[in-house]
Amino acid sequence: MFKRNASSNMKLISRSLYAVALVIPFFSTFGETKASKIFTGENQLLFENEQTDTFQFSHQFKDNELNLEFDEFLLAEEKSEKDENKITQEKKVLISEIIIKGLENHPEKDRLEAVAYDAMLIRPGSKVTSKEVQKDLNRIYSSGWFSRARIESLNGPLGVQLLIKVEPNPVLNKIKILPLESKLSNTKLNEIFIDDYGKTLNLNTLQIRVKEIKDWYNSNGYSLARISGPSRVTNDGIVELKIQEGSVSGIEIVFINEDGNMEDEKGRLIKSKTKRWVIERELSTKVGDIFNRSKLESDIKRLYSTSLFTDVKVTLKPVSSQPGKIIIVLGITEQRTGSLTGGLGYSGGQGVFGQLGFQESNLVGRSWTSNINLTYGEYGALVNFSLYDPWIKNDKHRTSFRTSLFLSREVPQEFRSQEGGSIRGVKDRYQADTSKSFDINTAHESISLGPFSSINDAKAGASQYSWFDYEGDSIVIERTGGGFSFARPLNGGKPLKKVPWSVLIGANLQKVRPIDYSSEKRPYGVATTSITDKTAPKNKIICVAYNCATENTLVSFKSAVTYNNLNNSRNPTSGDYFNIGSEQFISLGDNSPTFNRSRASYSRFYPVNLLKFHKGCRPKPGEKSDCSQSIGFQAKLGTIIGELPPYEAFCLGGTSSVRGWNTCDLGVARNYGEATAEYRFPIWRLLSGALFVDAGSDFGSQSSVPGNPGELLEKPGSGFSYGPGLVINTPVGPIRIEAASKDSSGDWRYNIGIGWKF
Hints:
Helix content is about 15%, strand content about 45%.
């Protein structure tokens, strides 16, 4: 029992006088007469006073449980002008003592007694009206700790004694969520209520916890979730909450034009080119799922990433007959997927060239991309057809397929050098034991022989000498063939799951012919720097193709593994990229070589904020940082084992290699290694800068390439470069312009490329 008494410093006579003075008014207000009653019914408690309003707090017991509604804890008071007049006329009585009962065996007795007392404004020694007593009773209820409370009054010698009888809420033992299969896990539920278990249930605190549950649903994308309750509170401390999470009853796909209309000018529905299953397979949201805003946003992003649509509008339509269920309506605007391109350009292999291309990125409405490219250049030409399916229909692993057919002619960079000349075509040759070879097209005074009409004539006329038929045209490598590949992310059969690992397998078949510009066969070559007076050292005349054949057949099977967790595919600022691949060539005859080519690369990016030219790198308080600034590192390795044709060797140097050298000018190698460090920083909205250092080496493997074209053309085999660059950010990708040194020699090379180097 909890007691609070008035001050006892009054004299006994004073107490007597007060007692006499208070007896009469008490009986007119709080006394145990007809004017003051306590009613105790089966399902309700009622404190009633004839001169004041009536108020009650009701609760119902059923099957050992307590049903409560939050709104019933705050007592409604109907105030009228008549009631106000009553209050002003009502007499006040002196409260001598406040006693709180009902908590004698409760484990939190002291705390709850203090809570009940502190909730009241009335104190011993206060003069109050019955209305004020009612308000304090409301305050006790409002504390949230009690399921029942009533007030009794007793006369005392010094005033009225208030007896507050309370019944506390049960001790909280468990929170039960209905339905049981809700998205909120028991682990998370217990985490929210961990501080409340084993303590007396407080309904105000319960409301706070309910809000935390709502916040969890919102933060996890379940924006339609509604939580109500408690729907049930049992005497053994089990609280039930009802959750209506909001489910997807249907998904509708409609096609709209650029004006947002579903019908054309003639009132006909907009027809779609894209197959509906192409759209549906990109949706992780399914009928019957709990609606998730974040999940739907990811679905929309995937639809945009297909490059098939210009706009996707989302409408949520409630189902009137099924509360808590909605229909998702996707209004999709298709974009034009066919394009015709043309232009002029320059490359080391083609020289000045013209290009014409046709692309369709939604062939037969299946999201297939087909390309036909025609390129004709100063040194070569290309005809290429390719077909790409980004996701084979009904494949749960999201496997993609690519195939191509091609005919190309290109001057191999392995046989050219900016400083060391080039390797020119030799039509035919005959080797004897001499150290020199002689051109059959010229009379050689030193041996008084020539010219000859053919190698056979030279062999017949002077078999003791070596001969070659030299015309001096550039060698062109003609390739005819095709290939296919399959790529698959390692998603465990979950096609929409984003995973860093992927694998690739494929095969290629091609016929390779070394020719000149007139399509005449040129199976041999000689370095222009090696020819003196129409003679050349015998070992300086090399086989362009494998086995000195006029045609090679290359059959290969390839495989690769890739890890990619870069934060941005175009301009990453953090993350890793790793790729290792192998291509095994197998022999199908005498002129078909067997060899293996393996390569690996690794890139790593670190976000920094060193230079702050761009305003996004120096945000004001409250602004979000927008600073795509990073330091990136890349390392590459490669090796070839087996019967290597020289035109299949690794090239070092160029815009995607060591940038201080032209394409393949640094080395022609069987083995190689390269490393790059690059600092990238934004300057303006469409302009970025870069500082870089490149290095590369053939590891001394140039001499192991058949014919040794690298050393014949005086390529150094190793070197480094450094320099600055500018990058223009365009809708088609970054365009970079760079100036790169060559070994700190003062010799600078200027590059133009599409996209970052790595």
